[in-house]
Write a structure and sequence with these properties.
It is built from 10 helices and 2 strands. By secondary structure, it is mainly alpha-helical.
Length: 272
């Protein structure tokens, strides 16, 4: 009787199936496919179809890392494969998409701006790979390349007609140069990798995610533009708020020995 029954704590841990180890790489492969599809449709001039592939690539890029951490299947190969896929989906694809959409009338200045964006993406990924082991996990140093890619992609999704005038295309250079400058900067952007869904506030997080998903399906272009630009501005808002708090703390003077209250005078009692 005792030999047949075993406690659950005595059971050996179950080994993961071989297919589980392929899940993160499959997500990364889907990310790479989205970048390739975005380039193909952008070259055809179908910007309505090309722009959403950047958003789908962003979702797949977030899933592959989480699945790898949850299943314990992280590897050096997966890290390198993910970086190469990100280079295509968040570097090459947004650059070609934006150039085909509105920078062709600028000639060499147009493709030079796209090349600057591509270079900034490569530098951002290289810096992330060598700094991922340390630092504050709550923040990114520089704007993440997936978030930077959503700025031109969401803008193009909201206005897919394209720019066919040189004067209209000049402001569109900011879609390439501003995210490129933020990617290679040292400005800290908030990271959402530390969100723990096992705490009590998990219901609030899930409700917020459900609200965002419903809003995206209701008005995809408007909501995606608001979310992408809000994240871009959030770093500057956080800098301003932190400086205001720092000045407020410095404005309150510390207590000096002259300002300290005097001890109470105690009169001596008679001995009888």
């Amino acid at each position: 009787m005792l030999g047949r029954t075993r406690r659950r704590t005595d059971e050996p841990p179950r080994r993961l199936r071989r297919g589980v180890y392929l899940l993160p790489s499959l997500m990364t492969l889907g990310n790479l496919f989205c970048g390739y599809a975005c380039i193909v449709y952008a070259m055809r001039g179908d910007y309505d179809t090309a722009a959403p592939f950047v958003g789908i690539a962003l979702l797949l890029d977030g899933l592959d890392g989480r699945i790898a951490r949850m299943t314990g299947t992280s590897s050096a190969f997966g890290l390198e494969f993910d970086s190469l896929a990100d280079m295509v989906s968040f570097g090459m694809a947004p650059a070609i998409l934006t150039f085909s959409w509105g920078l062709t009338t600028l000639g060499r200045w147009g493709w030079a701006a796209g090349f600057m964006y591509l270079t900034a993406t490569a530098m951002r990924l290289a810096r992330f790979n060598i700094q991922s082991s340390g630092g504050d996990k709550r923040y990114f140093v520089g704007m993440p390349c997936p978030a930077a890619a959503t700025v031109p992609a969401a803008t193009i999704l909201a206005y897919p007609v394209g720019l066919h005038n040189r004067h209209e295309a000049l402001p569109a250079l900011a879609l390439m140069l501003v995210p490129a400058a933020l990617m290679v900067s040292t400005i800290r952007f908030r990271s959402f990798k530390t969100i723990d869904l096992q705490v009590r506030r998990s219901y609030t997080v899930l409700i917020a995610i459900a609200f965002v998903i419903a809003a995206v399906f209701a008005h995809p272009a408007m909501v995606l533009v608001m979310v992408s630009y809000a994240y871009l501005v959030s770093a500057f808002v956080e800098i301003i708020v932190s400086r205001i708090r720092h000045r407020g703390s410095d404005a309150v003077p510390a207590a000096t020995p002259e300002d300290a209250p005097l001890p109470p005078i105690v009169e001596p009692r008679p001995p009888f």
